[in-house]
Amino acid sequence: MSSDTWTAVDRYLVDTLFDPDPILDAAQRAADAAGLPAISVSPAQGKFLHLLARIRGARRILEIGTLAGYSTIWLARALPPGGRLITLEFDPRHAEVARANLAAAGLADRVEVRVGRAIDALPALQGETFDLFFIDADKPSTTEYFQWAVKLSHPGSVIVVDNVVRDGRLVEDPDSADVQGMRRFLSAAAAEPRADATALQTVGVKGYDGLALLLIS
Fold this sequence. Notes:
Strand order of the largest sheet: 3-2-1-4-5-7-6
Shape: globular
């Protein structure tokens, strides 16, 4: 089975299950026009995050890695009245595009984009807790982001980590810095006594990858 089939199935599912969404489409066009890398989650993955946040009943969400705010929009739309999302983005240009997209989506009142290295921004959140975390930033630092997520969690918090399989390189290219980052994270997840974890391989318009899902006790 080829990647063309994965893409065709993904598009069929989106066409069948989703209503047209000009706001999300415009966010992707804005990212393309600004020259941002095409590494945001797919529509199906975004809806998965949205539904997961609703199932969890998340009122406080922390996202690490904003890019153009595509996944941020999906997550923020799941918030109930009074809910709040903080998203951390290293690149000021990416943050600028994300803020514009969030404003166009009518979500600027419930989302805060913080600019700078996430590893520097996370200590400022000590004392706060979050119901849901989405980690999708530089892969070598994933373990540190995960450890901070555990610190900022409470029993019942959910952590989602993207790009854990990396086109199979997780087992085929152990010398890659990104793969080493994911292997370190998976080892840390297995060793964390508060976390119950699994990981799923995924295929679709984004190719072959996977995500990890953790529940904190």
